[in-house]
């Protein structure tokens, strides 16, 4: 049974940083992708960042490019999202997701196979 467990959310002031973690279990990362989505109240879900677990190739939404970094620790089967220079508009529930390999990587956002339970990020101005 695949489980994705997120952690690291919280409240921070604008300009601050947070690092989200997503620990995967029951899941082999070969030929797969993992990534992060977010959804704010009243808004559509947005794909934020994705990583190809084999090659390490990454993809970012324009809204976070240059501020967020997705990375992985193969030994821990964990993916991270380092979020710097946070803005109030980054406030949302952040969800980790995993799925089979997609090309191009942006296509991962259309149909991941597994989801975490979410972790809240709140950025105050």
Q: Regions with pLDDT < 50 over 5+ consecutive residues? A: none
Helix share bin: under 10%
Q: Would you report the number of β strands?
A: 11
Q: Largest sheet, described in full? A: 7 strands, mixed
Series of H and E elements: EEEEEEEEEEE
What distance lies between the first and last C-alpha atoms, to the nearest angstrom?
40 Å
Give a structural overview.
This protein is an all-beta fold and 125 residues long. The chain is 0% helix and 51% strand. It has no helices and 11 strands. β7 (68-73) and β8 form a beta hairpin. The termini are far apart. The relative contact order is 0.31.
List keywords for this structure.
7-stranded mixed β-sheet, 0% helix, 4-stranded antiparallel β-sheet, single chain, 125 residues, 11 strands, mainly beta
């Amino acid at each position: 049974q695949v489980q994705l467990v997120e952690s690291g959310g919280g409240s921070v002031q604008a300009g601050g940083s947070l690092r989200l973690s997503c620990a995967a279990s029951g899941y082999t990362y070969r030929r797969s992708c993992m990534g992060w989505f977010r959804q704010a109240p009243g808004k559509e879900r947005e794909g934020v960042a994705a990583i190809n677990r084999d090659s390490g190739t990454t993809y970012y939404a324009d809204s976070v490019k240059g501020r967020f970094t997705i990375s992985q620790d193969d030994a821990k089967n964990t993916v991270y999202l380092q979020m710097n220079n946070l803005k109030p508009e980054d406030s949302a529930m952040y969800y980790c997701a995993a799925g089979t390999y997609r090309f191009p990587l942006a296509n991962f956002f259309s149909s991941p196979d597994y989801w975490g339970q979410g972790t809240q990020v709140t950025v105050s101005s």
